[in-house]
Design goal:
- With 318 residues, the chain is of the alpha+beta class.
- It folds into three domains: 79 residues, OB fold (Dihydrolipoamide Acetyltransferase, E2P) (Beta Barrel), CATH 2.40.50.140; 176 residues, de novo design (two linked rop proteins), CATH 1.20.1440; 45 residues, no CATH class.
- It has eight helices and twelve strands.
- The strands form four sheets. Strands 1-2-3-5-4 form a five-stranded mixed barrel.
- A hairpin with a 3-residue loop joins strand 1 and strand 2.
- The longest helix has 20 residues.
- The radius of gyration is 26 Å and the shape is elongated.
- The two termini are 47 Å apart.
- 36% of the residues are buried.
Amino acid sequence: MSQTYKATGINLKSMPLGESDRLVTILTREFGLIRAVAPGARKHKSKLGGRSGLFVVNELLIAKGRSLDKITQAETKESYPGLGKDLGKLAASQYLAELVLCQADAEQPQEGLYDVLNEHLRRLEQLPTTSVNASGNDSVLAHLSHGIFHLLAIAGIAPQVHACCITQQHLMPDFTDPEWRVGFSLDAGGTVSLSALSSQSAATVAMGVEKKARVPVVVGKSMVAKTSSVSYQTSVSTLAPPRVHAKLNAIELMLLQQLAGAELTQLNTVLVNGQGSLSQHQSADTAWLTVERILRQYTQYHLGCSIRSAALMDACFF
């Protein structure tokens, strides 16, 4: 970078600095995450006051500093004021921002991450203001889950949801059987067929074998070889089946699978079987709660970070 550089970025975090400044963490297209001082931003009539706010997109002129860079000019291109007017939307937006902070690189272009974050913030803002209590795919939880999945995909660690992680066979939700379930494993990286898991467990138990080993024994000053029969279990790390951290019903798997798409498909909250009689009754809202919780566990497991905003989400929805 030169002594002064231009960047387009969205503010993800800010904190007071000194008597009147703010330290802003910004996701930029060109240089990834940067931390820069907004001088005088806390003064009443400061031009940088509103431009250093959360989720404001600016075109920036930044001067390099020894320890911290300094914003010298900022022109706002976009903002999301609606996010701050709804507690659920605000919590979901902060949740997505935390994920970005966990995975974004510094001094590296982050165009994909930048575009995905802005797209999902825009979708959250456009939801009805009563979206905390909205139904199905119009809810904050549905759009939050969609955003989480896409951010994980940008990082290359999105869970596998269309096929079994053990057999790689396609998984189809079975809405005719109320007891039908599929497993979800953080270790394996996504969905697992419970029947395949059971078969692998049985195979692991049957893998105990006996091996003849030549064990050296000291006799006086000489070494002689003695044959010993050793029973051992084949390496658990390579044969042990993955742990199942959750079991999903047909509706929950269907919701999880559609997250990989660019848009969320509108769903009915009650599903019926081919004859028209009810085969399963579960609201999409309850299913989205399960999906979000699974994605939260998966994200924290694979990114190694705790999602603090999740506590605020729980306060909104539980």
